[in-house]
């Protein structure tokens, strides 16, 4: 499954996206919650948010058999199971498309249509599906977001007021203020949610007793919320440098002076980096001036007096050149003292230990880790793979103290110089996978990706001439990462941050020769080009079988004029084109897809089809403006 919030792949049995905390749909579920969070922000570049965009004012749209779409400024519904005529018609939403995408969905009961009319003060309206002749009724003005769960519907106003909408015909209940959309956390049913009011107050709303409870308040702000259980009976948050655990709505301190690294609800739990002490930092610094600096005092100009004679007249003056040189040397000594003071005070703390808390006990995984050498090695199927380098392994090349002039950020400066000293070299490192630590070698010039499904570590390395890169793979066992073998000897020249890869059906796919300018590359597997000119791909989770689909959904041949594209399925090495000239699409539960194609930029309408394959399709409607919850290419 690809996380609906951040675009990363999620593995079998995992209940939450470990990059952002978004819940994974359970078996037989129809809706999925999109929540926002930031995990490993310094380590992970979220790529697919820039590629696929979901209708911006709705959250909770999943892959099911209901298709809402807009035609002639009216909203219609297509039943993917009954395949009958659309049953919701003539709903006045004029102007709803002016914001680029309409905002409309069904509520959690599936009995009412909800939509935001942007031409009418962003008013939220509802209309019963069976009431064809009745007019839509308004709920609230200035609405920014509709949030639909399986058992509850919420909405958020532009001013940040959060409302519960248990019965759309009744009065909405205000449960929070100053709430941002990406600060709402919950689980699939939605009977209990957590949210941040501003950045300081963490609160919970429980529909069972219809009450809001304040969980915590932090003066410096709460960083994020990391759900662990689907009913929010156990989750975490970080505030003011510490990590807290919330269990049954009560918060307790889990780890002091610690940083959240991520979590995997099944394999590991909460991974965190806890600072220990500055011990060992001095060993990374070459300080030949320690003794002489300790004895040095600030020079006085009087110490450099001298006598000179001018036309027989003797007078007293100063040796300004010698004094200036001595004063300059003393200023350097003061700069070195600031570095030493930073180290002694612990403000430049570099070292820490990596722990895992699985809900019952805390396990020490790796000691004495240099903080900036914690690197995400890969996140296929969302089992954490973290590469760490112990500081003792990096002390072989100490940094001269006179190169460390930034006493306010000594840690970052030192880390940069240490890593720079080892650039391109293989260094012994640790791979943290779940609650296990496995040895491996690491080069910071390489890009690593761990494929959980196949237990393979892939890396992209430079050739000897530092130009064209090659891809290699190695097996990952309990003993560590094995020997690498070449997979692709002509990978491409683009920077590593444009490296996209996917795992499906027991195969590893990647985009080769990816262009940062056009955002396109060739989809390959084991060195073989399968689809050219690919813009993006998706792996999807099958909620019925609780496993990944064995194919990729691939978008390719994107037009720069109207952003239409070709939609394909790739299974193994087989490429099946579903439809060309597509501008929007949404998959049904049976893996058929609704596609809006043959789109006229002048009329702003297209033809809506349900496609099963390139040779089998059914026309749903004509002159369609928009599909709710559809995916489309974001203009580049």
List keywords for this structure.
636 residues; mainly beta; 10-stranded antiparallel sheet
Write up this protein.
- The protein has 636 residues and is mainly beta.
- The chain is 7% helix and 46% strand.
- The protein contains three helices and 47 strands.
- It has a ten-stranded antiparallel beta sheet with strand order 37-38-39-40-41-42-43-44-45-46, with no helix packed on it. A five-stranded mixed beta sheet has the order 1-8-9-10-11, with no helix packed on it.
- Strand 41 and strand 42 form a beta hairpin.
- The longest helix has 26 residues, at 320-345.
- The protein is globular and about 115 Å long.
- Mean pLDDT is 80; it is low at 4-8, 11-16, 18-23 and 25-56.
- Helix tally equals 3
- Please state the overall shape, judged from the principal axes of the Cα atoms: globular
Strand content: over 45%
Low-pLDDT windows of residues: 4-8, 11-16, 18-23, 25-56
- Summing up helix and strand content along with how strands pair, one would put the structural category as mainly beta
- N-C termini distance: 25 Å
Largest sheet: 10 strands, antiparallel
Give the mean pLDDT: 80
Number of strands: 47
Helix content: under 10%
Radius of gyration: 30 Å
Strand order of the largest sheet: 37-38-39-40-41-42-43-44-45-46
């Amino acid at each position: 499954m690809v996380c609906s919030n951040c675009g990363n792949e999620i593995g079998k049995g995992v209940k939450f996206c470990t990059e952002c905390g978004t819940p994974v749909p359970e078996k037989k579920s129809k809706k999925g919650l999109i929540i926002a969070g930031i995990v490993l922000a310094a380590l992970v570049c979220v790529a697919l948010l820039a590629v696929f965009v979901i209708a911006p004012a709705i959250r909770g749209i999943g892959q099911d058999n209901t298709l809402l779409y807009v035609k002639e400024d009216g909203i219609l519904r297509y039943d993917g199971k009954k395949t009958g005529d659309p049953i919701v018609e003539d709903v006045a939403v004029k102007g709803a498309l002016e914001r680029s995408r309409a905002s409309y969905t069904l509520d959690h009961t599936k009995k009412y249509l909800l939509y935001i009319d942007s031409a009418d003060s962003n008013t939220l309206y509802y209309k019963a599906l069976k009431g064809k002749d009745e007019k839509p009724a308004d709920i609230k003005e200035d609405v920014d977001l509709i949030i639909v769960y399986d058992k509850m519907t919420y909405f958020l106003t532009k001013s940040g007021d959060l409302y519960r909408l248990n019965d759309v015909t009744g009065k909405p209940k205000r449960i929070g203020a100053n709430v941002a959309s990406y600060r709402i956390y919950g689980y699939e049913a939605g009977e209990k949610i957590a949210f941040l009011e501003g950045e300081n107050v963490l609160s919970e709303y429980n529909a069972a007793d219809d009450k809001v409870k304040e969980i915590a308040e932090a003066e410096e702000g709460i960083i994020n919320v990391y759900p662990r259980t689907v009913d929010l009976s156990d989750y975490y948050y970080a505030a003011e440098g510490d990590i807290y655990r919330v269990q049954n709505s009560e918060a307790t301190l889990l780890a002091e002076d610690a940083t959240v690294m991520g979590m995997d609800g099944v394999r590991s739990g909460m991974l965190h980096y806890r600072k220990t002490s500055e011990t060992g930092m001095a060993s990374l610094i070459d300080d030949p001036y320690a003794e002489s600096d300790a004895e040095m005092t600030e020079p006085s100009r009087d110490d450099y007096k001298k006598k000179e004679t001018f036309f027989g007249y003797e007078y007293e003056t100063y040796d300004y050149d010698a004094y200036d040189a001595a004063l300059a040397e003393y200023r350097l000594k003061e700069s070195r003292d600031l570095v030493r003071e930073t180290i002694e005070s612990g403000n430049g703390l570099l070292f820490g230990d990596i722990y895992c808390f699985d809900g019952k006990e805390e396990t020490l995984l790796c000691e004495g880790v240099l903080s900036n050498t914690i690197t995400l090695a890969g996140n296929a199927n969302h089992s954490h793979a973290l590469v760490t380098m112990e500081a003792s392994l990096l002390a072989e090349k100490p940094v001269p103290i006179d190169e460390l002039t930034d006493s306010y950020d000594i840690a970052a400066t030192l880390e940069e110089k240490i890593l720079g000293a080892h650039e391109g070299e293989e260094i012994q490192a640790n791979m943290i996978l779940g609650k296990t630590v496995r040895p491996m070698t690491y080069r910071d010039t390489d890009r690593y990706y761990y494929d959980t499904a196949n237990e393979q570590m892939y890396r992209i390395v430079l050739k000897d001439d530092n130009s064209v890169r090659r891809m290699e793979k190695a097996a990952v066992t309990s003993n560590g990462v094995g020997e690498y073998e070449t997979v692709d000897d002509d990978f491409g020249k683009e920077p590593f941050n444009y490296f996209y890869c996917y795992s499906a059906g027991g195969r590893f796919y990647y985009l080769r020769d990816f262009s940062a300018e056009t955002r396109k590359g060739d989809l390959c597997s084991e060195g073989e080009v399968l689809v050219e000119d690919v813009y993006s791909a998706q792996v999807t989770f099958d909620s019925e079988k609780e496993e990944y689909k064995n194919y990729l959904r691939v978008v390719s041949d994107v037009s720069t004029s109207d952003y239409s594209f070709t939609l394909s399925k790739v299974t193994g090495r087989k490429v099946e084109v579903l439809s060309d000239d597509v501008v929007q699409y949404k998959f049904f539960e049976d893996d058929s897809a609704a596609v809006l194609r043959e789109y006229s930029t002048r009329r702003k309408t297209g033809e809506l089809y349900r496609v099963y394959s390139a040779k089998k399709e059914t026309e749903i409607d004509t002159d369609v403006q928009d599909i709710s919850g559809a995916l489309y290419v974001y203009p580049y």
